[in-house]
Amino acid sequence: MNSLIQKANRLIVKVGSSLVTNDGRGLDHAAIARWAAQIAALRALGKQVVLVSSGAIAEGMLRLGFEHRPTDIHALQACAAVGQMGLAQIYETSFRAHGLGTAQVLLTHADLADRERYLNARSTLTTLLSLGIVPIINENDTVVTDEIKFGDNDTLGALVANLIEADALIILTDQRGLFSADPRKDPAAYLIERASAGDPALEAMAGGAGSSLGRGGMLTKILAAKRAAKSGAHTVIAFGREPEVLTRLASGEPIGTELQAQTGHLTARKQWMADHLHTAGQVVIDAGAIAKLSREGKSLLPIGVIEVRGEFGRGAVITCVSEGGVAIARGLSNYTSGEARRIVRKPSGEIEGILGFVEGPELIHRDNMVLL
Ligand SMILES: Nc1ncnc2c1ncn2[C@@H]1O[C@H](COP(=O)(O)OP(=O)(O)O)[C@@H](O)[C@H]1O
Ligand SMILES: N[C@@H](CCC(=O)OP(=O)(O)O)C(=O)O
């Protein structure tokens, strides 16, 4: 019984170019309608779903009349921009048929490497999910070139899984899962049903893309699973044309390849923070705040902060120290050092009046904090 997807509350579903565009013949309306129906069923089960969809370049090539994938990067970018309109339109229509709204989110890897943009993307996505919207994500191909040359949406799917701490990443592709070797080349290849994400033996099995449309092949999927596992997300690689693939996975049926994460996502996130030796600044907190953090497991509110040391941006890792200089906790700051200095010692209800906006009532949220 495969219960990974059954148990997952927050899921990323990634669909590859070949699937979305019917192997380059044009947007596969029927397949997209089926995934939308399945995602609507998952939402009805209380699961939050983010869709990462490729296919913009393949669809744009068709719309612009390119017979072969252009080698000129700017022509590829033009294809992506044209094709993305088709993707947005068909997803909006297909989900609307089930009473669900969609939102277009275009991201680059650089956006997710920047702490402030990372937090902004995270807040926008979690807000969309809480509003019942299905975010549809793709790379922002207009502003980057490296990712068109080397990038792939498998990695983007994993980065988004890290970003919003998804419980699982489902990668739908044109094969039934990971095989012991590329099944297009080796007829004796067999399906790997279950493995540990990050197992180095998997990388040896994976070859490059099987078609001229897909960019990554199986290797990027294996590496994506490894990356997703770092924040505690499990990965399933399955055939996107398998009937009811998503709903069957959600009901516990084992389909495709399951790559398990070895740590839970809160543990993984906290481990990351504990390992983060270079903290950007410090906040000196009072005895009341120390008790709240250490004994009651609460967030750090500005009212418990005596002093802000150093210069840091929103999302930076900062250390909470006692007046005697003992390090108590480490975590991600919701505010910049300048903003934090203006709200220390103030009740959270006054933040909006002082700063003109609120990123959250706490300076460091409990989920973004690790006790030392
Ligand atoms: N070990 C393997 N198991 C399964 N598929 C593999 C393997 N190695 C390479 N591949 C190739 O990877 C392809 C899927 O990757 P890709 O074309 O990038 O798909 P997508 O567009 O879904 O991201 C398959 O069609 C297959 O030919
Ligand atoms: N942003 C590109 C993604 C290309 C890509 O990664 O494709 P795939 O390997 O099929 O997931 C597009 O929409 O065409």
From TrEMBL:
PANTHER family: GLUTAMATE 5-KINASE, ISOPENTENYL PHOSPHATE KINASE. Its main location: cytoplasm. Belongs to the glutamate 5-kinase family. InterPro entries: AceGlu_kinase-like_sf, Asp/Glu/Uridylate_kinase, G5K_ProB, Glu/AcGlu_kinase, Glu_5kinase, Glu_5kinase/COase_Synthase, Glutamate_5-kinase_CS, PUA. It is found in: Cytoplasm. It comes from the Bacteria. Pathway: Amino-acid biosynthesis; L-proline biosynthesis; L-glutamate 5-semialdehyde from L-glutamate: step 1/2. Substrate binds at S54, D141, N153. The gene is proB. Its EC number is 2.7.2.11. ATP binds at K14, T173, D174. Catalyzes the transfer of a phosphate group to glutamate to form L-glutamate 5-phosphate. This is Glutamate 5-kinase. It catalyses: L-glutamate + ATP = L-glutamyl 5-phosphate + ADP. The keyword Transferase applies. Keywords: Amino-acid biosynthesis, ATP-binding, Cytoplasm, Kinase, Nucleotide-binding, Proline biosynthesis, Transferase. GO terms for molecular function: glutamate 5-kinase activity.
